[in-house]
Write a structure and sequence with these properties.
1 helix, alpha+beta, two-stranded antiparallel ribbon, about 90 residues, about 35% strand
């Protein structure tokens, strides 16, 4: 059963989203990512290697780009394959 620990959805400019993603990337490099929205706050500490999923979906007239990082709570992490953004 899935338990949602944090969720936030806002409409932002493409530039603001890019800044947010850069900030997440910087925190990910440091080993801990703290997410905040209003009074909500959650810090996660992903292991060195995570499962990384990129998905583009179309539902009717709406297209979405989803980026997901997933790991087991007890993961130590070994490197897998590569990926590229072009």
């Amino acid at each position: 059963m899935e338990e949602v620990l944090f969720e936030s959805e806002t409409e932002e400019s493409r530039a603001a989203v890019a800044d947010y993603l850069r900030s997440v990337a910087d925190r990910l490099d440091d080993g801990a990512v703290t997410l905040r929205s209003g009074d909500e706050e959650l810090t996660v500490n992903p292991p060195e290697t995570v499962e990384f999923e990129v998905k583009v979906e179309r539902e009717g007239a709406e297209t979405s780009l989803e980026l997901e990082l997933e790991w087991a709570e007890d993961a130590s992490g070994e490197s897998g394959g590569g990926f590229e953004v072009a």
